[in-house]
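A common beginner's mistake is to predict each chain separately and then try to dock the pieces by hand. The better habit, illustrated here, is to supply every component at once so that their relative placement is modeled jointly.
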Amino acid sequence: MSDTVEQAANLQIRSVLATDCGSTTTKAILIEKVGDGYRQTWRGEAPTTVEAPFEDVTRGVVNAATEIQELSGRKLVSAEGRIITPEQSPDEGVDVYISTSSAGGGLQLVVGGVVRSMSAESATRAALGAGAIVMDTFATNDKRRPHEQIERIRQLRPDMILMAGGTDGGTRKHVVALAERIRAARPRTRLGGGFNLPVIYAGNEDVRDDVTELLNEVCDLQIVNNVRPILEDENLAPARDKIHDLFMEHVMAQAPGYDKLMTWTDAPIMPTPGAVGLIMQTISRQRGINILGVDIGGATTDVFSVFSEIFNRTVSANLGMSYSVSNVLAEAGLPAILRWVPFDIDEKMLRNRIGNKMIRPTTIPQTLEELKIEQAIAREALRLAFIQHREFAVGLKGVQQDRTIADAFRQGGDDSLVQMMELDLLVGSGGVLSHAPRRVQSMRMMIDAFAPQGITELAVDSIFMMPHLGVLSTVNEEAATQVFEKDCIIYLGTCVAPLGPVREDQPALRVQLKMPSGELIDETLDSLELKLYPAARADEVEATITPLQRQLDLGAGPGKPLIKTLRGGVVGIVIDTRGRPDIQIPSAASQRVPLLERWVHALGEYPEEGS
Amino acid sequence: MAAIFTPGLKVAEHAIVHKDRRLPLEGQVTVAVGDQVTADQVVARTELPGKIYPVNLANKLGVDAGRLKEFLLKGQGDKVSEGELIAQTPGFLGLFKAEAHAIVSGTIESISTITGQVIFQADPIPVEVDAYINGKVVEVVPGEGCVVQSAATFVQGIFGLGGETKGVIAMGVNAPTDRLEASAIDDSMAGKIIIGGAYLDLAGLERAIAVGAAGVVTGGFDYDEIKEVLGYEVGVAITGGEELGLTLIVTEGFGSIQMAPATFELLQNKAGKRASINGATQIRAGVMRPELVVTFDDEEVPDQKVEAPEPVGITIGDQVRGIRAPYFGSLGKVAGLPVEPVVLDSGSKARVMEIEFENGELAVLPRANVEAIER
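With all components supplied together, the output reads:
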């Protein structure tokens, strides 16, 4: 923390300006102390100015701050064109200015380790946790021959390489072999500029001298503690911190205008996803809940989770809604997308439309039909990104574990840390979720894509404020969480969904709800249904829900009733009897389309025809 | 907030075009500022490092890695020829000798006494960059390349496959609404750039490849046929390295869409002229579009690099095209620019434009779904 921030923390921060310099847009928010608490009061945005003809990121920052200045009447930009800190008066300056950045494609790393599922995986986790995009992961056992690996390292032009390998006192030969390959490739930096590529070595401490001898000449070698000092433990923080330092010193310092921006901010500039991860961890820790977050963008989709206090982040680099939309089609396949489209459509036409979105990525759906197609694609992008996340978010491999009988019967026998029955809060972010014309559409997309089980609250980030709040949490955690709860997050409601396949011809659940108005609801829900019970966030709904099929489990055990207080949101409580872990949808269009229409109608997702 | 502006595709009968000609690695620039160059003339050359071939010689010789150097006949940095003897063990009483030979001609890059690995680097690969278009060298970046400038007809497409090539323009259709049929493509089109209309199907593309055409320009092409021709799907629009046998440029988009009449007319007027085309497309930061360039070789061009004017926003009366359903590919002109956002049929709220289409229909489109036709 810088001196300024420490002083400000001691003095009680009155105001904060936070910016996120994205690839295309720089978003600024103003946070002010209002009464006893902090609120996000104004926002502004402007095109990011990293590329020609401007080539100075601070111009976009100043433009976004100027928009806030004009709207709020608070002077934020000095005559010299920089952010005014600290606060001079309630109408001038802010106590703290902070920023995140993903401009210029974010932070791109290549990761190496000895065994793919062990040290290489730990290094990948450290890189992703720092907010990086992992371009490729090398391991001595990754099935590529050495010369193929060397060719690939040459082709990739990362911002840095993170090299792990071996436990302390473990293999020497394989670590040296990896370093030899990096040396042979003589990797170059993405931004050029005559700098040696930063390589962080976070492997077997006994091999440091050998690695130094091999790499010191050709790279800017940095040595930190081993990410995997023993098989049973990971130590990711030193590597992650070093990545952040180098991000500031090398990557940011070479990007146009960042040298200036770095002197303006009161805390280090963080990679945007790194900041989102921080706020997720803060909320999970403070509320003692398991949390899953997703940020779906045009090119990439990030998934974050904190389960049993273990944080994981993955980035699906080619799953997105515009630049990468055709890749969603390629990876999911057309039938997977079509199963969410509530009308018949010619397949060739749909492929062409998706291709046209890829080449004109900034277009938006004008018709309802286009919106429905876009939201169908979003479900698949989210679903695929989530599958990748679940596969990655596992306990340490190579460790002998004691298993209990309960573990043996755990869902599907999978070893992911992300268990949907244990999820408390699912948070969505990104244009297609945050800006859906109706909030119920966001809720439905998230339910379909993530298939939550048991009782799960759902929310969206109102205006993509999580990065700002993540970096703010490093300066003032209290302010960050207050704004998160009051202004950032919009609670959509709660999803109730039993785990287990449903028998389609039988009723699935008996639902008894005591609504805040005093109204008592007691009804039976058929299988393959979605039902919405409107209730606000402040409402407490006393619920007794009883499975009517023995295999169905709401979290209390198969066939057992669940008694719980549920909370609503801007949408309400959605009860979903479509089966879990996979939602049961018929593949034939003649059966599927009427069913999809019924679900759309049940939740009031779209304007009805003729209304 | 800054005005919403969707940059359009440039279709200019006359423009000052400059092309950056850069080496992938530092090398030698063979031209000077002021030089007149032709499209095929080499302007810079370099040598790319050869491929790397690691071989575990210790294993091969059956010796301990730490003793490897004792048996090597060559040292680090030495030149070797493919098949040359580079290591030998004495064996036992002159028998059971183990030998190792160079697997490639090149240099010994490194020898490891820890892993027993010897890394060979093959001989460098020469790389030359040509001028791509006829013109004048207006800038030289020592060791890296140059900028060639020319007066030219310049047409951008929206999506392409394949890299730079050159050829004489030949018409494959009579009107921008026509499909380019395989039957219209014959052997006389070898080495030429064939201009199509609204649509090209897979059979047409395969025929063009078969006759040895240099390129094809079409209004529309089906997205799923890319997979047929490449063997894989293009999931992200970053292209240019495909080895298709020709360069494909799509001017409007995927599906059957008439080529913009202005584009078609311009290309028709250039039939018989030599053009340079490039299918490389990159739709991300640092956007790159496929292009066709026909230079005016008689025209004197300025000695200094002429920067393109800053694009201006769309104003009433400007020619535009719809770039999303339900008006995808429709051409018209801007009739109104309402300030207030409007709720669309999708339920989203967005800033819009009123467009008068060529068929007389007046419609309201989100600004994001409209593209200027730049001239």
